[in-house]
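Progress against Task 2.4 (sequence-to-structure conversion) is shown through the following example record, which the project officer requested during the mid-term review.
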Amino acid sequence: MNTEYKISAPEIPPGGNWTITQEDLQKIETQNEALIEIRGRVISSSLNIEHKLDNIISLIFMGEDLNAINFFKELLLEKEFFTFMNKWKLFKELTHRKVINFENEGDRINVLGGIKKIIQTRDCFAHGEIVFLGTLPQLIYLDEGKKKRIDLDNKYFDQQNMTFAQIDNALQGIFNFLCNLKNKGD
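C-alpha cells generated for the chain above:
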C-alpha cells in the first residue's frame, strides 16, 4: 500500500455555488479509478495480515509439521465460520495467557488495537460505499447501525499505511521469534 494518491477537494465559499465541469468529472473519474485500486489494496493487505495470524496460530498449535499445519488450516482457520475477528480473538487470548508474550503490556495493547483497526478498515472498504462530495471521496459505512463517513484524503491513507506496516512488522517479528523458540527446543 505504498502508492501515493493526491486527493483534493475544491474550496467552496460559504453560501457559494459549485458547478461540476467536464474537468471536474474527469478528476472524479480518475479518483474513482484510484479508489477502486485502493479498495483492492486495503483488502489484499488485510488478507496478508490475516494470513500472518494464521501462521502464528498454526505454529503455536501444530508446531512446524507442514502436514499438520495444512490440515489445521483447512479444517479450521480457512473455513468461513472462522473469521478474521475470530482469529483476532484467539490471538488476543493467546497473548493474555502469555503463550505469546510481549515485553510490556503497552506493546500487546498496540498490536491488538492495530489488528482490530485493520479488521475494521477492511470491513469498511469491503462493505462500505465510496461516494464523492464534490471531488472529495468519502467512505460511507455502518457502525452499530449508524451511518458513518470517512474522508478518503492523503492523511487518512498515510495513517492506514502506517498501521498496516507496523502490524505487518510486528506479526512477522512474532512469527520469527516463535520459530526460533521452536528450533531451540528441538
